[in-house]
Amino acid sequence: MLDVKDLRVAYGAIEAVKGVSFSVEKGEIVTLVGANGAGKTSILRAISGLVPAKTGEILYQGRNLVGIPPHDIVSAGITHVPEGRLVFPNLTVEDNLLLGSYIRKDTAAVAEDMERVFSLFSRLKERRNQEAGTLSGGEQQMLAVGRALMGRGTLMILDEPSMGLAPILVEEVFRTIVEVRKSGMTILRGEQTANRALAIADRGYVLETGRIVLSGKASDLAAMDEVRAAYLGR
Questions:
Q1: What total number of domains does the chain contain?
Q2: What CA–CA distance (Å, rounded) separates 67 from 49?
Q3: Of 151, 157, 161, 162, whose CA–CA distance to 188 is shortest?
Q4: What distance in Å separates the CA atoms of residue 20 and residue 81, rounded to the nearest whole number?
Q5: Were both Cys, which of 51, 111, 145, 166 would link to 45 (CB 3.0–4.6 Å)?
Q6: Is 57 exposed, middle or buried (0-12, 13-18, 19+ CB in 10 A)?
Q7: Does 58 fall in a domain?
Q8: Position 190 in a domain
C-alpha cells in the first residue's frame, strides 16, 4: 500500500530524515519507533504532504505523492492524526467530526459514519454537543481518531497517539487502534514508547537521528536487548 524510498527531509541546512526506506502492506499496523528528534514526525508529515521531501519517493498504491498538495493526499485515502491531537477546542465534538468529512459529498454515508464513530467511542456520543476543548486528553485523542475515520480513507497515520496520556487511557487508545484495524484500515504510527506500541503492531522500524537502524517483526524487535534497553526501560 505504501512504499517509501530513500526519503530525505530537511529544514534549511538541517537534514531531519536521511535516506529512509520502508513499506506498509494493506491491513498492517506498522510502528516507527524512536526517541524525540529521531525523525518520526518529519516522515509522517512528509507522507501527508505537510512538509516537502528533499529527495526520494512516497508511493501510495503506486502513485508518487511527492509534490502533491495535502488535500489531494487526503482525497487519495490517507488521513493523519497529528501529534498533540489538534482538535478544534471551541467547536463541538460533532462539528469536529464533520470537519473530518469535508471532502465528501455523500451526506447520507457521512451520517452513517458519524454513528459508526459513536458506536466505537461511546463517550464521544455522550458528549457530541460538548466543546472539544473541555474533553479529557484521552477523549480528545479518540475524537482525533474519529475525525480521521470520517474521511473514509484506507491508510491512517497516527503520530504519538499515547503522548501525554495516563497509562489507563493509553491502553484504551491502543484497544481502539486494534478495533480500527479490524474495520479494514491500514495503520502507520510513530511512537516513542515502544512497549505497548510494538505489542499491537505487525512490523516495526527503529529510527535514530533520521535513519532506520533496525527493522523486522514487531515481536522480534520487542525481544531485542538493544531495543528493550533503549525504548522499553529494561
A1: 1
A2: 7
A3: 157
A4: 21
A5: 51
A6: middle
A7: no
A8: yes
Q: Is residue 221 part of a domain?
A: yes
Rounded to whole angstroms, the Cα distance separating 218 from 233 reads 17
The pLDDT assigned to 192 comes to 85
84 inside domain: yes
Domain range for 147: 26-37+69-231
Residue type, 10: A
233, pLDDT greater than 50: no
- Beta strands 14-24 and 78-81 are unpaired
> Helix crossing, 137-149 with 107-120: angle to 10°?
150
Q: What is the pLDDT of residues 99-129, one digit of tens each?
A: 999 888 888 889 999 999 999 888 899 999 9
CATH number for the domain that contains residue 82: 3.40.50.300
Q: What residues does 205 pair with on adjacent strands?
A: 32, 215
Closest among 160, 216, 156 to 187, alpha carbons compared: 156
